[in-house]
Amino acid sequence: MADEGNRVLEEGRVLRQLVETVPLPAFVMASAGKLLFANAAFFAMCAKMPVLYHAGQGRLVRLCADFLLHPEWTQWSQEIETKTGSHLAGVVEVRLSRLVRSTGALPMVMGVLVDQTELKHISNRLTKSHTQAKELARKAEQASRAKEDFLANMGHEIRTPMNAIIGLTHLCLQTDLTLKQRDYLGKIALSANLLLKLISDILDFSNVEAGRLTMEMVEFSLEELLSRVVALGVKGWEKGLECVVDVASNVPMRLQGDAHRLAQVLNSLVGNAIKFTEQGGVVIGVTLHEELAEQVVLTFAVEDTGIGMSAAQVGQLFQGFTQGDGSASRKYGGTGLGLAIAQRLVTWMGGRIEVASVPGFGSRFTFTVPLLTVGTRSAATPDVLPSWHGRRFLVVDDNATVRKVLGGFLAGCGAQLVWAASGEEALQAVRAADEAQVGFDLVLVDWHLPGWNGLETIQQIKRAGLSSPVPKMVIMTAYGQENLLTSGAEQGLVDGFLSKPIWRGALLEIMACLLGAGTTSASCAAEEEVATLTRLAGLRLLLVEDDEINQDVARELLGQVGIRVIVANHGQEALERLAEQGFDLILMDIMMPVMDGYETARRIRLRYDSTELPIIAMTAHARSGDRQRCLDVGMNDHITKPVVPRELYGTLGRWTRHGGEVERFLSQDLPVWEPIECVLFPEDFCPGIDVSRGLRNVGGGMVTYRGVLEKFVRNQRDTGQKLRQALADQDWSTLEYMAHALKGVSALIGAKALAGIAKEIEQRVKRTEEREMLSALLVECEEELVRLIDEISRRLQELDAVEGVRDVPGEEEPGDVPLSEEMAALMRHAVELLRAFDSSVDVVVEEMVPLARGVARKERVQAMRRVLSDYDFDECLALLHSWAEEEGVVLYS
């Protein structure tokens, strides 16, 4: 027994020594906080953290007592934290186990303490860092959305005045101008379109970077797409470069895909090629890379003869905002965005883009794009070519690629083709053929040749004294240079013209016409365009647009093709117009007061389906997805501002089910009247208004400017009161919108000071901390607004008096003096213009002003002026009919 006791004591000492050497604090505690055993590490920790155990008390004692009260608990763990103020001083994890003694005595608790302070600090730091990271990610996402919204809004704000610039420039170019004026306006139009492209590049780059770019699947003609690309490169063709389009014969021409993005890539590559090429030309090639059941993979190539690039420049070519030459003295400008966007768009469409370049020898960009085929494959080569067996054609062009393309076009027609690279070679070939009695039937001659030009070559051939019949002569010209050939046509030297790049359809059409053999299936774009415009004439269109300048531009563009336009200033007004009368089409802006375009479209679709009443969106928003959002609410199509007339007409034509009063519209032969300006605005017309700026804003028309001033006086009288009411109601959105609108219309008429005050109100509404300054600003705004309205009204009355609107003392009334024949002629002409929906009728009405003698007649003219300021042609026509009936004037011959 003694040995057994000694052995137990020995094992106890070993166990105690073992526990003492363990670095973790360990202890054994009985009930009532009695500490039976603890190692040195335990006492060291309690010395640092007295809150754990001190003189039989502490949080550890309470924890063990709690543990013993639950017999079902065999093990348990809990953390004990100590703090110094708000700072975490220490964290201890207590791990407890129940010890049940065999003697039946009360159980004890064995515990181990683990210092988790450092780990807790690390965990807290990680949690804090994670929270900060999430917050930074949230702010980054907010910043990204804010940037996208800012860019979209910036694009919208810029596109709105751009719409006026491009639209009014287009209209002005159709009037009688001097050569210098036409040159200036042409440069304005070119610069405006370049600016528009820059805006689109910035927006697209932002959308691509944010991953928000959306692609669309639409059916399109590859030939039409390439034609538009070539047309946009007119700047390059003007500096003497030649453009060649080489489409392989097995490439289908009707395809489905994102035509807009494909054209954007090609425009970027062609524009880049033109910029870096001074001599030679640009070749746009299309080949079939792979053909599947309902899909083709096409390879597009754009090759130039420009300055080329080094390997280092090629390596950084597709990086955003990077150019091959970034020096301050660089020759070639640009943002460095075009190619970066092109690469991302090609990747987005499922293709890849590559470039090969040698300094001094030009560059070649190639990219592949998968596209769907549409219906029966329609390749570039017609199924049936005209049969010209036995015919001989001479092609004169120094460009080998052009000769190759023309040879591909005519392959299989049975004719014999002979080539010449200059006028001298062509004359030799014609003489040799004549001597062999195998003369040519047709000669295709390039305008720009080494040595003799095209016309000189034709002259030499016709003077050669040939024994065989002189062949038909067709001259080929670079894009936009047809005007150089007027003299040749007048002299009878040329039988036909072809603009480069030459399309197979145009070539075969002119050959069939001149040779009188066979027919072709090629469509004539000009005939299609005429058919579209004819279909538009007489249509009733509801224009929903709140901006007055955009209303004027749209009216002019639509009126030129005979469309009858009724205007609504916002969505609610559009619904009211629809309830009153029927329309064939709706052209609708998106951002409008009262009711925007989206909500208006939803409500219209509750009554009319998309085939019964098409709705075309017209908006300056250019974000990806805007078009889809328009379609989702029931609109049929989407036009982006600034409006391109041809695209506008084409889009309207696609959704027109039938024509209007086409026969009467096309048969009109209206007399030509020289417009006159009846109202003169001196520079000191009204203090606070820059008249010259106001006139520029409305396109220079004084009649139009007067109408804008009258609208300003009529529409802005209650604006000050409405602004004050919005501030009193704390209706910040209404206040911001009204200030924005006042800023725009004030800037329009040239009231710079008022526009500045309105702009400041708009900005301060957005900043909550600056809203207390609004009261003083509104007082200043209302004072300036009232002053301007009173001054404009007074000066307009003075101008009316100068024009003879005021009664002359002793003047006889209309019943006593018959209406003058001059006035009657003006009334008849006005009726003709009103029936044709020609907005130039306002000029004729202004001519009536000094001829209206007597109060009643003056009132008639003023009433017509008022309704014309709102473009209400129907009401003006009714006023004219009533007046003519009263005066006994016959309006119709």
Topology:
Elements: H1 2-21, E1 26-29, E2 35-38, H2 40-48, H3 59-68, E3 75-84, E4 87-99, E5 108-115, H4 117-173, H5 179-210, E6 218-221, H6 222-232, H7 234-238, E7 242-247, E8 254-257, H8 259-275, E9 281-291, E10 295-304, H9 311-315, H10 338-348, E11 353-357, E12 363-373, E13 392-396, H11 400-410, E14 416-420, H12 423-435, E15 442-446, H13 454-462, E16 472-477, H14 486-490, E17 496-499, H15 504-515, H16 525-536, E18 540-544, H17 548-559, E19 564-568, H18 571-580, E20 585-588, H19 597-605, E21 615-619, H20 626-632, E22 637-640, H21 645-654, H22 662-667, H23 691-697, H24 702-715, H25 719-728, H26 732-749, H27 752-766, H28 774-802, H29 821-835, H30 841-848, H31 855-869, H32 873-887
Parallel strand pairs: 7-9, 13-14, 13-15, 15-16, 16-17, 18-19, 18-20, 20-21, 21-22
Antiparallel strand pairs: 1-2, 1-5, 3-4, 4-5, 6-8, 8-12, 9-10, 10-12, 11-12
Chain-averaged pLDDT: 76
Estimate the global geometry from the Cα principal axes.
flat
- Assembly state: single chain
Largest sheet: 7 strands, mixed
Q: Outline the low-pLDDT stretches.
A: 320-336, 377-384, 482-490, 518-530, 659-679, 697-701, 803-815
The first-to-last residue Cα distance is 148 Å
Strand content of the residues, in percent? 15-25%
Evaluate the radius of gyration: 42 Å
How many helical elements? 32
**SS elements, strand count:** 22
Structural class: alpha/beta
> Percent helix among the residues?
40-55%
